[in-house]
Amino acid sequence: MKLVLENVSKSFEGKQVIDHASFTFEKGKIYGLLGRNGAGKTTLFNCISKNLTLDNGMISIEKNGQTEADYENTEIGFVYTTPHLPAFMTAVEFVKFFIDINKDRIKEPKSPQSYLTSVGIELDDQDRLLKDYSHGMQNKVQMLVSLIVQPPVLLLDEPLTSFDVVAAHEMKEIILKTKSDSIVIFSTHILQLAQDLCDEVVLLHHKKLVAVDPARIHDIDFEKEVVQLLSDDNELATQSMEE
Q: Which ranges form a coiled coil (predicted)?
């Protein structure tokens, strides 16, 4: 399975954010999307998830040799930086509701309590209102419901930033298991996280998508090189990371 971006462009109020960007993401890999603030990472995720329409280009999902540009937005799991959860529901109520409306998409459904426990939400907390959860706990629940349906494409916008050390480790393990069923792409400013989790790193710079040579991700100078390239106004310098 592949997620294919071809000449994707998006602008806002005359400002070009993404300009004829192309890339192919494959199942079985975790991709780190790196870029400076305002580079367009969240915009790109919103285009992939169909929250935004493209100005030009095409995004498609390729399965079993068939290419589908008109895919359903339910094919995309999107975990936002800021959780989007119903404040008036408890965690158990919300997960049960999610399971009920997605029962045809869940291969092996479990109880809401089992799901919540699997991401470290203790039984004593599961009947609390989501509005009373910490930011990190809300993020756990948001990530959980995306993982329950095992979407073909999973987008994680700045994951793990609100988690404590133990919770971050638990979430890393869950993300690593997810790549066998999904194309996983996460944006981050934490280069160490990208090195720990990613099979490939992609830079969004100068409105384009540029792959980093996977063999260089664990180089001792990787962080220094990425920082230098993202600070560089020379587009040719960024492209050199592919070589």
A: none
Tokens 């809401």, residue? 112
Distances in Å between the alpha carbon of 113 and those of 80, 93, 104?
Answer: 23, 10, 20
Answer yes or no: is pLDDT of 159 > 80: no
CATH code of the domain in which 15 resides? 3.40.50.300
23 forms beta bridges with 5
Residue 16, token pair as written in the block: 């070009």
Q: What is the pTM of this model?
A: 0.88
In which domain, by residue range, is 74 found? Answer: 2-242
Q: Are 129 and 90 in contact (CB under 8 A)?
A: yes
d(CA 125, CA 140): 13
**What is the count of structural domains for the chain?**
1
Average pLDDT, the chain: 88
- The dihedrals phi and psi of 188, each to the nearest 5 degrees, come to -160, 155
Q: Could you give the CA distance from residue 236 to residue 168 in angstroms, rounded to a whole number? A: 36
Which of 7-16, 130-139, 222-231 is predicted with the least confidence, judged by mean pLDDT?
A: 222-231
